[in-house]
Amino acid sequence: MRIFKHPILFGGLKHLRQVFWLSIMNILPVPGTLRWIFAKWGGVNFISDNEKKWFYIGSNVRFDRVYPGNIIIHNGVHITHGVIFLTHCLDTQNSDLSDIFWKENHITIMPRAFIGTNTIVCADVTIGEGAVVGAGSIVTKDIPPYEIWAGNPAQFIKKRSCKQ
Q1: What are the DSSP E strand ranges found in the chain?
Q2: Model's pTM, two decimal places?
Q3: pLDDT score, position 9
Q4: 78-111: per-residue pLDDT in tens?
Q5: Do the Cβ atoms of 133 and 150 come closer than 8 Å?
């Protein structure tokens, strides 16, 4: 985890371009299955193991504009309306109290995960393959594969039953 001072000030033109695409993503009437393209242009990383890329991003999803490249989303992920991804947070461990310092975080969402409406994903977290995050949750810890989590903070609810 790297610590930076005022990360927004050092982004330059690349950062402005990313902010533009992440903003326009929620303004244009674009289907959720195509919205990921704007997020990719905004710096978010999308990974697909095959040629068929499928990502769903609902309306009003907010990706952190400071470090969008620290978000990795795998194929088949379904992100519903109003989800917020935060990849930077206040560094409360810094002993220099004369200024504000930020910590850089990473978020990884594994294939076929589902994130419910108005969820906030923050800190260094990985949401496992096939995991479900309930609406309105605040994710601060890793979620293992094929588990259902919900709440503030998100807590384990139950394992998903998988039919083969």
Answers
A1: 3-4, 45-47, 56-57, 62-63, 71-74, 78-79, 84-85, 88-90, 102-104, 107-109, 114-115, 120-121, 125-127, 132-133, 138-139, 147-150, 155-159
A2: 0.85
A3: 53
A4: 999 999 999 988 777 777 766 777 788 999 999 9
A5: yes
